[in-house]
Amino acid sequence: NEEDEVIIGLPITNDKDCIGIIAATGYGKKVLASEFPIQGRGGKGVFILKTTPATGDLTGARILTQDDNVLLISKTSSICVSSEEFPLSSRIAIGNIMTSNRNITSMIKI
Question: Is-contact 107 70, C-beta < 8 A?
Answer without folding.
Answer: yes
